[in-house]
Write a structure and sequence with these properties.
heterodimer, A: 277 residues, alpha/beta, 2 domains, 10 strands, 24% strand, globular, B: 275 residues, MetI-like fold, 11 helices, transmembrane helix (chain B), Nitrate ABC transporter permease (chain B), membrane (chain B), cell membrane (chain B)
Chain lengths: 277, 275
């Protein structure tokens, strides 16, 4: 579904040359939920912007359904970390969710159905007429998720979407995203700096190295598909995977190569075959 | 969904008590005191009643004006010049502001020219206006438009610069084209600034409309003030001055009302929200 090949991004300006991303190659299969985790400042946001077509890479390419991404592609929706700035305060919740659909030139009745359905899916059916700033942070991020859902994307990109909400809301939103993913079968690329979150949510976790970024390791999360905050997080397997990823991120920070810990099912090679869904 | 309900309460405006009432009473008392003073000072002979008639005589003259058809024609002329000039200035200012901001390099190329033209006082163009259009309405329009255009243009330029990069990227990610982004992101962001520009321009436009009539002699309240002055009709002159003052007040109140309506979503208007 989503192919990232040899992606590199170098920022050049005012005499400074910053190589944010060096050489990234990975694939996300249709219907997969992949988490990208890495040390802070490792170019996660740069990568996501390149994938979303918001930023032109200096090397390599991104393919969506086999077609190279040169600008924001129609089949991709993005949920940003800064929900307060990503939602438009001059529009009501339903208008915010419906605006991209208007641009898609969908007929009015279809738009209304999609908006209502998306808001119901995130549990905000009765907030359609409110302004985003009348809602709490967690609810605002739900609206942003509803906007992405209503867009009916092939791939949903999420850029540290829960970094700015409190821990309890965060747990609720994690379950919401996982639930929506299972229910709707969308392909999700989820960027986070939170290791627990990556292991809890993902079917596969990509550990990125420190900047200039490469893929440090790919890890299949062999936890059962039914996950919940109470039991999954205390499962021994969860602890093993989490410890493994933690060690990898620490190694990435120090700039050393991958250290094998536990019996983590590392996906070998650069072009792993996505698991069948 | 524990927080699935809507917990946005209606905005609370006032901070405790009913200050609106006492403020209004104080304001009325202040105005009453001022009027009483203006009545007393000439009657006590502190200033000459010939040049500074007591309020009651000005009120009489005002009543006389209100009953005179020529006064209403003059008022209509002034308002026409004001409204037409303001409309042209706002349209041109907003369009120019958006185009200058959206087209690459245009802002840099125009900045110095704008900074040079903007400080020229509109009244300095009176000789030019007379040469071009004599005492026609177009003379008034030239001055009004020149003065108010810069207010709107500058505020629009500031407003457009305020667009949030995250909002802009969101719009791009969801496939909004240039025109859709101007309409749904850039324009609402700039609107609070534009509204301020329009309010300032509305006040300046009235000043320039009256000035043009007064100095050039184009028909309107200003010209009527000049006539009253030269014919020694002092109370009438003051009555007309009061009318222009009231006009300015009404224009400001009107502009603020429009601003509040249009920007109900904006931080400055929506007040505190319980979250």
């Amino acid at each position: 579904m989503l192919d990232v090949r040899g992606l590199g991004k170098v920022y050049e300006g005012s005499g400074r040359r910053v190589e944010a991303v060096r050489d990234l190659t990975f694939t996300v299969g249709a219907g997969e939920l992949v988490c990208l985790v890495g040390p802070s400042g490792c170019g996660k946001t740069t990568l996501l912007k390149c994938v979303a077509g918001l930023l032109a890479p200096t090397a390599g390419e991104v393919l969506l359904r086999g077609r190279p991404v040169t600008g924001p592609p129609p089949g991709m929706a993005v949920v940003f970390q800064e929900y307060g700035r990503s939602l438009f305060p001059w529009m009501r919740v339903a208008e915010n969710v419906g605006l991209p659909l208007k641009q898609k030139k969908l007929p009015g009745s279809r738009r209304r159905d999609l908006v209502a359905d998306a808001l119901r899916s995130v549990g905000l059916a009765d907030a359609a007429g409110a302004y985003p700033w009348q809602l709490s942070g967690g609810m605002q991020q739900r609206v942003a998720i509803a906007r992405a859902l209503a867009y009916e994307p092939d791939v949903l990109l999420m850029d540290e979407p829960f970094a700015a909400v409190d821990a309890q809301t965060r747990a609720d939103l994690e379950d919401l995203v996982r639930g929506l993913w299972r229910e709707r079968g969308i392909t999700v690329l989820f960027v986070t700096h939170d290791i627990d979150e990556a292991v809890y949510l993902g079917e596969r976790v990509l550990v990125l190295s420190a900047s200039p970024t490469v893929v440090q390791e790919q890890l299949r999360i062999d936890l059962p598909p039914e996950r919940d905050q109470l039991h999954t997080r205390v499962a021994p397997r969860f602890a093993e995977l989490r410890t493994h990823v933690y060690a990898q991120v620490q190694a990435a920070k120090r700039g050393t190569a991958a250290v094998p810990t536990a019996d983590a099912p590392t996906v070998p090679g650069r072009t792993p075959t996505p698991p069948a869904t | 969904m524990k927080d699935g309900h809507l917990d946005g309460a209606p905005p609370e405006r006032a901070r405790g008590g009913p200050p609106g009432l006492t403020n209004a009473a104080l304001g009325a008392a202040g105005l009453g005191g001022f009027l009483a003073l203006c009545e007393a000072v000439p009657r006590l002979g502190v200033v000459s009643a010939e040049y500074f008639p007591p309020v009651s005589r000005i009120a009489d003259a005002l009543a006389g004006e209100l009953g005179d058809g020529a006064f209403w024609t003059a008022l209509g002329d002034t308002l026409t010049g004001w409204a037409l000039g303001l409309a042209i200035a706002v349209t041109a200012g907003v369009l120019a502001g958006v185009v200058i901001s959206v087209v690459p390099y245009l802002r840099e190329a125009t900045a110095s020219t704008i900074e040079f033209l903007r400080p020229i006082p509109s009244v300095a163009l009176i000789p030019l206006a007379v040469l071009l259009y004599g005492t026609e309405l177009r003379s008034v329009l030239l001055l009004v438009v020149y003065a108010s255009f810069w207010q709107v243009l500058l505020q629009t330029l500031y407003g457009v610069r305020d667009v949030d990069p995250v909002a802009e990227e969101t719009a791009r990610a969801y496939g909004l084209g240039t025109w859709a982004r101007v309409r749904h992101v850039l324009w609402p962001t700039a609107l609070p600034y534009v509204m301020t520009g329009v309010r300032l321009a509305a006040a300046v436009a009235l000043i320039l409309a009256v000035t043009a009539e007064l100095v050039i002699g184009a028909p309107g309240l200003g010209a009527r003030i000049a006539v009253a002055q030269t014919s020694q009709a002092v109370p009438e002159m003051y009555a007309l001055v009061v009318v222009t003052g009231v006009l300015g007040l009404l224009i400001n109140v009107g502009a603020r009302t429009v601003e509040r309506r249009a920007l109900a979503w904006h931080q400055s208007v929506r007040g505190e929200v319980a979250v």
